[in-house]
Design a protein that fits this description.
With 348 residues, this protein is of the alpha/beta class. The protein has ten helices and 13 strands. Helix 2 crosses helix 3, helix 4 packs parallel to helix 5 and helix 9 packs across helix 10.
Length: 348
């Protein structure tokens, strides 16, 4: 777990009763369309987390800073406005990623598909050269660089905003030099030199939670309280970034669906996703095609999980997610457009 004695007096706030209408006494979540009047107030103590539902007018003074972070509008992330959900399209330049491994191992195909995703509405194309699926092995550094740099450069030269999906400082730095616009690290910038490389690049970052490492993360994941433990971890990483010179406005957080989590853990994190807005950062949800979707359905393989992926994406949007990392860009864009039209009908 990520509890430390210094956190005994800390509080978390999870907005509840989110809806699209501003009602008397309500506040807007992250300055967006969703509003709330009540929160689940969580207090971390030596015996675990105590929770109670509290109206905004009855929150204790200790919750004031967290409440303001919940409500502050999120500024653009790397030039991408977050006033409506933004899409990050996935391009894995690998032979063994769980869903599209081998599909885009050729750099020319990867660039072409990335350009298509951008035309379909992706704000970023997330390029990765190392599979981080459960059980994945290490990729030599020179091989990872060989895979990703031509794709990053090709997309960036075409005016596409590229996110580099990488854990290693050398890959982050080389990708930044090749034109990447954002760093997305499943390890939360904990690798040797990665925090320094990210800070030096001046790029915005995505900090993800992962329990363990890809080869072993799904063997026996366990938490004292999954949402609170992940929140505490991400809070510590945000603080580390700020200490290194990366402003909170340039940070997005990702609870890491499927990265050292059981099906029950994943569902709780999605249900409590608005909790993470209390960190004052944009929240990214990456659940596209993941195995828990098949486990909750009929055991479909990864490429047959698009309908479930859309259901999870909309659940995330309804809980305040600002960024969705997905394989199916056009379908997700359409689903978001309909969700937005239903809560805010266009003028006739």
């Amino acid at each position: 777990m990520f509890y430390t004695p210094g956190m005994i007096d800390s509080v978390t706030l999870q907005p509840v009763g989110l809806d699209a209408y501003a009602r008397p006494g309500s506040r807007a979540l992250a300055g967006g369309r969703l509003h709330f009047r009540d929160c689940v107030l969580g207090r971390r103590g030596p015996d675990g987390v105590e929770r109670e539902i509290v109206s905004l007018g009855a929150l204790p003074p200790a919750a004031a800073e967290t409440l303001e972070r919940l409500c502050q509008p999120r500024p653009p992330l790397g030039g991408v406005a977050l006033d409506s959900p933004a899409i990050m399209g996935i391009v894995n330049v690998t032979p063994d990623s769980f869903s599209d491994g081998g599909d885009r191992f050729d750099s020319g195909r990867a660039v072409a598909d990335g350009l298509s995703m951008a035309e379909e509405g992706a704000a970023w194309i997330d390029v990765g050269g190392e599979s981080t699926r459960p059980g994945a092995g290490e990729v030599p550094l020179d091989e990872e660089l060989r895979r990703v740099l031509p794709v990053v450069e090709g997309l960036a030269k075409s005016g596409v905003k590229v996110s580099i999906d990488a854990r290693h400082a050398q890959v982050m730095a080389a990708a930044a030099d090749a034109g990447a616009a954002l760093i997305n690290d499943v390890a939360g910038l904990r690798g040797p030199g990665s925090l320094e490389a990210a800070a030096h690049s001046g790029l915005p970052v995505v900090l993800m939670h992962m329990q363990g490492e890809p080869r072993s993360m799904q063997r026996a994941p366990g938490y004292d309280d999954v949402a609170s433990d992940v929140y505490d971890f991400l809070a510590e990483r945000v603080a580390a970034c700020e200490a290194a010179g990366i402003e909170r406005s340039r940070i997005a957080v990702d609870p890491g669906i499927g990265f050292g989590k059981t099906v029950a853990h994943n569902l709780e994190l999605i249900e409590r996703l608005a909790l993470f807005q209390g960190l004052g950062c944009a929240v990214l949800l990456g659940a596209s095609r993941k195995s828990f979707i098949g486990r909750l359905s009929r055991g479909e393989d990864a490429k047959a999980r698009m309908p479930g992926s859309l259901a999870v994406a909309l659940a995330g949007v309804a809980r305040g997610a600002q960024v969705l990392r997905v394989h199916d860009v056009a379908e997700t864009r359409q689903a978001i457009a309909l969700w937005q039209a239903l809560i805010d009908p266009p003028a006739e």
